[in-house]
Amino acid sequence: ITARKPIVLLKGARSSAGSRAGASHTGALTQPDEVIEAAARKSGIWRARDIDEFITLLDLAEVYGPLKPSQAVIVTNAGGVGVLTADACQAAGVELFAPDRLLREELARKLPAAASVANPIDLLGDASETRYDDALTSLAEEETTKTALVLLTPQENTPVSKVAQAVLSHAKCDDMPIIASFVGGMRVREAISYLQRGGAVHSGSPERAARVLGIVNRAQPYGSRASEFTPERKRADAGEVLAARLRDERRGGLYYSEARELTGLYGLPTAKAWRLDYNSPAEISYPCVVKVDSPSLAHKTDRGGVISGIENEEALVAAAEKLGRLFPGERIIAQEMLPTGEEIILGAARKDGFGPVVLVGYGGIYAEQIGLTEILIPPFSSEEAAEILRASSLGFLFAGARSQAPYNVGELASLAKALGEMLLENPWIKEADLNPLFIYNDQKPAVAVDVKIFSMREEENSFKG
Q1: Fewer CB within 10 A of the terminal residue: the chain, N end or C end?
Q2: Domains of the chain from N-terminus onward
Q3: Can you give the pTM of this predicted structure?
Q4: Torsion angle, CA of 26/27/32/38, rounded to 10 degrees?
């Protein structure tokens, strides 16, 4: 893969329902197709979802080579199709180009008074090849990076073949990329063939043209954000001590105190906890939560392993005894009770063929049901992660709503970066979950209520829950 050679990918077998069993929520949510999507984005690969997108992307790569992310400007002779294409751009995450005053005035001088010089640029149903030529000339001379989606529907007096000639002349000569979409069945078939023979890019539908542009925009240029990463020997050595302990004790995962020790080296915040035994510490603060702490129990809430709302020592003893009966031989811990925040899952997993991946998702323990997640491939910078998170399905968290202040995307991006580094420095880790991670929009720092780390070695021990 090089910066001068676009790569277009079409992968089948996207369904992976049979592989959703895993030790952690992260394992279930980082499925092969989602990981490939993230890897394609990081590598600058244009990934098609179907054969039609694949062909259109190949045409785009052949005609224009590597492309920078761009806005879309829609040029059409049918207002309805233009509006539908604008909707498709929004759905594909493509920003619409906004003509400035000078460009609007220039277009208004060239086009009829009834034409729209906003975006979509509506040339009206009787548009000739001259109107298409005038509009595309003005747009190409304007310096903003943009791609023109040029639409045509054959109306009563539409000179389809002449419009095709005008579009082709601009597609071959202008710096502005053009994706044409002539919609009209047999009435436009010869014009489409003419465009394709001449080397223009044509999409079978305006909606597909918008999706294709979205695919190009999402693929970050290969190497443009390559992140430098140098492992820290001190952290890696501390991790290897824990890994050796797992091997010696034939455990598949860390206890909470061990996981908290390791994540603390990377600045990943976790709730304070105390181990409960016959000599329980006196400094426990109330209210608190009592939990079973077992490396072999991934989903302790589902198994009744969490009792919250403990207000005093009497309730603490009762809760500890109850969990001791339910989970004989397992450790029991008390954990500080935190102010409820917005629940996030922050996780990482080691995937065959890719290495470490980092997952950020909404909903904490309900993340699998909600399905709002984003995958990142480390190493990455905090700035790169923040940009991806803002543009993802999680973006609403960082925009604010009504009276709600936005959450700190920079904080979450930095934590995701740190978790990725933890897996890069500790090749013995298979999966790690900080879930739920409470984030706040009132200046309180984020903190994980639970953290689970499972090992690559003896990992079958971690699938009991």
Answers
A1: N
A2: 35-44+229-269+341-465 (3.30.470.20), 46-218 (3.40.50.261), 272-337 (3.30.1490.20)
A3: 0.80
A4: 20
